[in-house]
Amino acid sequence: MDPKYNLGIPEIDAQHQEIGELVKALQEAIADSRQRYLVHPTLKRLHQLLVTHFDYEESFLKMLNADELRHHKAMHKGILKLFEDYFDHPPAPADYEYFGKVVGDKVLGHVMNHDDGMAASMRAYFGNFKASAQKVPGKP
Ligand SMILES: [Fe+2]
Ligand SMILES: [Fe+2]
Fold first, then answer.
1. Residue 50 counted as domain residue
2. Which ligand has its closest atom nearest to the C-alpha of 78?
3. How do residues 53-74 score in pLDDT, each as one tens digit?
4. 20 to 30 A Cα–Cα from 58, which one of 67, 110, 133, 140?
C-alpha cells in the first residue's frame, strides 16, 4: 500500500500493509487462471486478518470512548459481510473478477478514506499521553 496512506500509528500501518498485500495477492490469483486455486485460501487469510484488525481498531476506539466507534464498527461489519456471503455462496469462477474488485474497493477504500478519522482520535490520545508522561512533577 502506498506509504501516503500511513496513519502514523505503526501497529495499524503494519496491519494495513499486510491487508494491502493480501488484496493484491487476491487480485493476482483472480487475474491468472492458473492461480485460481489460490482465490479461496487467500480470501480465508484476508478474512481472518480483517477480523483481527477490525477488532484491534474497535477495541482502541472503545478505550478512547470515541464518537466514531458505532459508525466505524458498522463499516467493518459491512466489509466482513461480503466475506461471509462469499463463504456461504461462493460465486462462479466467471464472477471472481467482479467479486475481487468489490472486495478490493471496499477494503482499501475503507483504509484510505475512513481509518484516518479514527487515527486522528488515536494520535490525539497518544499525543496527550506522551505530553503527560513528559511532565516533570512539580512543574507546569
Ligand atoms: Fe484499518
Ligand atoms: Fe477501520
1. yes
2. 2
3. 999 999 999 998 888 899 999 9
4. 133
